[in-house]
Amino acid sequence: MLKRLAIPCLVAVGLMPMVGVAQFDKEAKVPGRISFSTRIGSWRLIQRNEADPVNGELEFSFTGTLLINQPAKGAIVTVSGNIHKEYQSEKGGRVVYNGTGKLYFKGQARAIQWFGRDMQGTYYGRGVFKFYGEFDDKQETGAYWYGVLTDTKAKRKAWGIYGMDGVVPENVANMGGSTGPVKRRKIGG
Where are the domains of the chain? Predict the structure, then answer.
């Protein structure tokens, strides 16, 4: 009797996470907003998974270097100040910008990476930020918060020196990868 129940129970337990993932992917397509600033550090904006690339609008001012990895056709990049295109691969798979000024990106990409100093910006879209802070002369590493750049009441979180994730949209980050309780269906008789 136990042997007959063991296999269906193992299959059911193995399928439970798939039910939650399907619900998560379906309901979490809404973009979010994250703002961030640092005096010195780096970050990397990556796709959530292979089917969900970085997709949104990034606007920030900085001194440093920015790499856009595999920008989609139709992606818009606008620069102002003393920022110039340093490198572009032959097939357009990687584009590097360097300098001081402001950069605006709108569209999809596999990843976007920045390092430098005196940076502040906002991202509206979907993706995962990996923030890496360095201590400045005031022993601060930088901060990120969910909301607009000028929101002084937002709960700010410090960049970790070993890395800190900022998942966009925020509600997905706070729920540990789920949008809420998953109703289980009865298996068996």
Answer: 32-174
54-81: b (≥16 Cβ within 10 Å) or e: bbbebbbbbbbbbbbbbbeeebebebee
> Is omega for the bond preceding 31 within 30 degrees of 0, making it cis?
no
100, 81 contact by CB (below 8 A): yes
pTM of the predicted structure, to 2 decimals:
0.73
How many Å apart are CA 53 and CA 113, to the nearest integer? 14
On the question of pLDDT at 161 being above 90, the answer is no
- Cβ atoms of 156 and 145 within 8 Å: the answer is yes
**Residue in 74, 41, 80, 68 with CA at minimum distance from that of residue 163:** 41
User: How far lies 19's CA from each of 7, 49, 169, 175, 183, in Å?
Assistant: 19, 17, 21, 16, 9
Lookup result for tokens 């959530």: 48
**Number of Cβ atoms within 10 Å of the Cβ of 161:** 13
Cβ–Cβ under 8 Å, residues 126 and 169: yes
In eight-state DSSP terms, residue 52 is B
pLDDT score of 53: 87
Q: Scanning the structure block, which residue is given the tokens 């949104």? A: 56
Query: What's the CA gap between 118 and 136, in Å, rounded?
Result: 11
DSSP track, 76-137: EEEEEEEEEEEEE-TTSSEEEEEEEEEEEEEEEESEEEEEEEEEEEEEEEEEEEEEEE---T
